[in-house]
């Protein structure tokens, strides 16, 4: 066996050993007790979490395929490799194990935070990279959900559209909303394909939701813009709202999203009712007075 083949074979054995050490719960997957014949993660699960095809990953474990640097980065993240294990995996692959670029956590711009507070009758949120929800005002919480109850790492709009029953139930045309949101996320992926948090999000949703997996594979893209959404709100009823994006000049990765209704329409009146209800719930004077 040649040195190259030996390295490929050792890499495959290394990957298999690492995935066998991980439980589904450690990577955020449901663990159906008694249904697994072997311990650890399945090949298909590792592949989906790493955003590669199961066939590609199978050939890596079998020593029949070379892996690119981005794929190795993704596998290091999925398999929870430490720095030494990651360097060893790159050595076996004949690749330079440059440390992955780590972005600092985004914080909402202070001016956007102040603007949110000054919109008492308009639902508004600030979205960051990957559609992470960085900030919101009371009206957005009243319209969608109490974002504060959601762990910060899971506070992502696309994840909530697919996985949160409360938000999913708001949209009578949920499939259209979900596909538009996913297409905007894919546009983000094109801007930064090596973002480990984005790869983690895509892998998680691909495993958990067959609709996401199918639509992500369609490769549709959409940029931020404006449009109209219909929501069935449990308190005020049906709302037809226009949404638009405003991008921060200080941080182009932060966008203020507002939802408004045309004056004189039933939706506008219901939005005012929701604002009054929100103010009363918070013990504040109503914006109508």
From TrEMBL:
Start and end of every HTH cro/C1-type domain? 36-86
- Entries under Pfam families matching the protein: HTH_31, MLTR_LBD
Q: Which domain of life is it from?
A: Bacteria
Q: Which Gene3D superfamilies match?
A: 3.30.450.180, lambda repressor-like DNA-binding domains (1.10.260.40)
User: What protein am I looking at?
Assistant: Helix-turn-helix domain-containing protein
